[in-house]
Amino acid sequence: MPTARNDGVELYYEAEGDGETVAFVPDLGFGAWQWGWQHAALVGPYEVLVFDPRGAGRSDAPAGPYAVETLAADLEAVLSDHGVRRVHLVGAGLGGMVALRYARERSRVATLTLIATSPGGPRAELPAEPRERLFAPRDDLDALRESLDVLFSEAFVSGQPAVLDGIAEWRANGDADRSGWEAQNAAFEAFDASDWLYEVTDPALVVHGGEDRLVPVENGRSLAEGLPRATLETYDGAGHGVWIERSRPMNDRLLSHLGTDAT
Prior knowledge:
This protein is of the alpha/beta class. Helix content is 40%, strand content 18%.
């Protein structure tokens, strides 16, 4: 079990495949399980690296609150431990914020993919109540499953019951507990990139679901407008978990984006 350490915090990660490294950064409260739909599509032509952020899964959960800057330093610790020299970063929600911060501070980023991500700041449209509804105790499978109603569109929830059952079980084993969720949520709420997006000049693919109730699509539009080299891809009818709901077309678009020349 490979682990990296940042300031005494142990961080669990896994890497598989050959070629350039694609590192996936999880959303608020989630463990590495969330990237199973992308892992299968990318591993082989790329090395896929996934990890549990501090506060979730198999990584340590020190007392919070956390900051995005700290989570970006954790990402650097993981990449350095694995010897990654150049990386494609893919982040969702809070993970997208972490990827943005990392790209601002580090030169090893080849491309960015920012899924259901907000630039934060006073003008961001981030309703707190639905985000709170996503949390559920890890020992309550029924609550974990019910909480997925806010992650996905109504059509997906009604049409994919077996998928939701599986996700609930993965969350029971890999998500943050209440203290870890609150520590990560503090980082989410404090994030504000609105004044420095123009500094992030890496090629960026911004992906958003048109029916995202956690991070409404207006956030994705603002993000794409503020980044110098961004392309916006929206999926009508998809919710916040667009990387799962529309995994096939999104993976195709992601593979195309990863071939972007970052020079």
